[in-house]
Amino acid sequence: MGEQVATSQQEAALGEETERHSIPGTIIFDGTEAKRGYGLNKMCFSFNEEANRNAFLADEDGYCRRYGLTEAQRDAISRRDVLALLELGGHPYYLAKFAGIFHLDVQDLGAMQTGLSKEEFKARLVEAGK
Amino acid sequence: MARIVGSIMSTHVPAIANALDRHDETDPYWKPFFDGYEAVHAWLREVQPDVAVIFHNDHGMNFFLDKMPTFAVGCAPEYRHGDEGWGIPTVDPYPGHPDLSWHLAETLVGDEFDVTTCQEMLVDHAVTNPMKLLWPDGGVPIVPVTVNTVMFPYPSAKRCFALGEATGRAISSYDAVPDLRVVMIGSGGLSHQLEGERAGFINKSFDLRFVESLTDDPRWATQFSGEDLVKETGSQGVELLMWLAARAALIGTVRRVTWNYHIPISNTAAGTLVLEPTA
Ligand SMILES: [Fe+2]
Description:
The complex is a heterodimer.
Chain A (H helix, E strand, L loop, with lengths): L1 H19 L10 H6 L1 H9 L3 H9 L1 H7 L4 H8 L3 H6 L4 H10 L4 H9 L3 H11 L2
Chain B lengths: L2 E8 L4 H8 L8 H4 L3 H10 L3 E6 L14 E4 L3 E4 L12 E2 L2 H13 L5 E3 L3 E2 L1 H10 L7 E6 L9 H16 L8 E7 L16 H13 L9 H8 L6 H9 L5 E12 L2 E10 L2
Parallel strand pairs in B: 1-9, 2-8, 2-9, 3-6, 4-7
Antiparallel strand pairs in B: 1-11, 3-8, 4-5, 10-11
The complex binds fe (ii) ion.
């Protein structure tokens, strides 16, 4: 009985993972992600205000704690690890505001996430038009 | 009675704001994109719209995950461009058309589209960039209609099409201002994806098939689920839902006035399309 429960929980967890990545390299941002990333996204949303961007820069970890980020999220913020932030519930629209603080544009971010150089990433975009 | 003069579909990539600010219109990177707007400007001079109703999606400006309406109608006297956080230049507020807004909201709810009404609404590049592209030196009052493409589940393509049709009907029944000329705007797209290992995804063949369908077979895209659209067009390519709604507002047959497609602008397959009713 106990074993069966464990098995179905594992299956459920596996099912969730499969669904999360049913499109390779893409996380479908749904309620599960919204719950997982709420504090992180709320912090990034606050970066719409300059005073908050400055407060973050003055004390990054303290600012993260104020929004209740998990340890893993705080670590990913400190490493500017966009892929990890996405895995931890970050939403691309809000994370873009975090990236904006460091003047990273979408090609910088594209390169970081795909492991390409910025020039290679831009060349891939041009190629898509042919 | 108000009359819809046509629909303009336009990409809204944030980088456009910087390009406009630097006057990069003839720069080799930007020229193939900006050239597409010349025919749109000529058409606008001809049809002389009084007001624009804009289907757009919010990118973390007016809405956050604390409250995320599926459909919202702006009912504000003006729409201020907020600080987006990443340093694109802000533009002057656009005046609203509250009377048309309320008519639209009330008629849509009467038609069983339970929209959220917003008497204050900040707008981002999804409103300001198409407006600047279409009217570089001015503009017309606007009524923004926001469609959730921030978190799943998004409204289905079928539902967005029906919203577009209902919006078209609601505008046609507006008679408080005699002979008001309304232009629809569908803001966003075409295929692109900003995040994840799949960042940079573009699907030219799907984009072209979709745009083709808008003229003669506008319900074609309603067969796709939200996830199908992410798969085919990229996470943010789903903004084609705005194009679909803006097309659906032109009830009946249409003619293509102009069409331009260029890859890439920023990380996006950029598209500009004008359709007008043939009736
Ligand atoms: Fe967008």
